[in-house]
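Running log. JK asked me to keep both predictions on one page so they can be read side by side. First protein, sequence followed by its tokens:
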Amino acid sequence: MSNPRRILVIRLSSVGDVVLATGVVDVLKRLFPEARLDFLVDQGYAPLVQHHPELDQVFVFEAAGRHRGPGGIHRLAEEIGAVDLVVDLQHKLRSAMLTHLLKPSEKRVLVKRGGLGLVRAMLGRDSVLGAPHQLERYIKVAMGEAWREGISAVPKLVMAPEALSTALEELGLGDAPLGFVVGARHASKRWPVAHWSALLEKAHSSGLSVVLLGGPADAELAKQVAQGAARPPHRIWVDGDLGQLAARLALCRLLVCADSGPAHMAAAIGRPVVALFGSTSPERWTPVGSQVQVLRQSLGCSPCSNHGSDTCPLDTFACMRELSPERVWEAVRHGLED
């Protein structure tokens, strides 16, 4: 398509993928500067894109509400209206149905697996995915025939000013703290509680304040980390939505995170990140930003999973357990010096 007047980017979930998809927004704006550029996202992830400066409108998919079922998707199509180009980075039944109803002049769809890869996934024997990076795959889909090697983009996460003001008031510190994002969705991506507690001790010994960050599901884990250290963190921040989390990440001097959505959020905000990888591939999922350090153990069994799992195939979790607090602390010190 030579000159689409209106483009819709679809990425409904999850945190990291939605953040990475904001890099596609940047590329499309460069490629089609006069086009109207809209984004469709699931309701819970809307704060990740609502304030993006290059987006004309963000449509929120209320899957459990007004857009539930086939009738709801018809309603959503009517709300969106005519579109020239759909870039579907989700490629699920809902996004395919919506694209069919919108009848764009052109659609560009992320094909996650094909042929033997699809068969293996259906049998539960999915191959571990490595390079290219997920953002590169998104860019290639979005650009279509215009894609060429070397095209790059940096994801961007912009927060609501009022969320930043509220977070700053809640923090109550004169200096920016370190932020430790202690959780991850899957157990194979989580750093041991004792390691987090040891890192908290090292930060306190250096006179640095620390906040523990995450979502409501991380509350018990954060409590355990705090109890394992001689001194508690300045604050445990595990309530609120993604907009509040983004504001809290933005106030931190540096973030230490496992391979998780908040790691991508922090990098897209522009904060220094120390990312801890174990069962998943850094080639595929490293947070994209100018100040990102990736730490991982060189083990023959790692990576073993595309998105993490609740168990370790060897029942050792060695990839995260052997990543020592001393090594992570050295990376933190290096990040603070830059």
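And the second, directly underneath as requested:
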Amino acid sequence: MKNSTKNQLRIIGGVHKRRQIAFANIEGLRPTPDRLRETLFNWLMWDIEGSKVLDLCAGSGALSFEALSRGAKSVHLIEPNLEQLKFLKKNLVLLNIENAKVYASTAQQALAKINESFDLLFLDPPYALNLWEELSQLVDEKLNENALIYVEADRPLDSLNLPKTWQKIKNSKVGIIYAGLYQKVGK
């Protein structure tokens, strides 16, 4: 029998502030903590409105739902786990969100099919898979010049081999989590 236990988190700001969204109880699924989400969206305060967002490893969807709540124009969520995918779709319906697209595949598979460019990227892959370098190289061409990139990892950001065109502009550390905001500069 499938593990259909669910967890919940709350949206911190925007039109859906204080709303609860559910996510599956899956090993390795770890939503960005409230404190770090608050820091991130303070960093993005003036840049989120009207942005096209790509969430490469959506997981709980916490970052995407927060971005949508704060005025993102559209969000593309990529999630390979079918159990969690159901939760993402239910949350979109619950919040009456229509400007989101969900992909039931790995980030690598979805990136091969996406023919759009983005203003904001969330790169927060499962830590154990060590996908930062691979995914950053694959997604770089889909980012607009001056796009903002949020990276979350369990190791120092300088060790992730991110593209040279990604310039770190802010960073933080909460517990074991290293977080950074980058901007794509040049080609």
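Observation for JK regarding the second prediction: The helical segments are 34-43, 62-69, 82-94, 107-113, 132-139.
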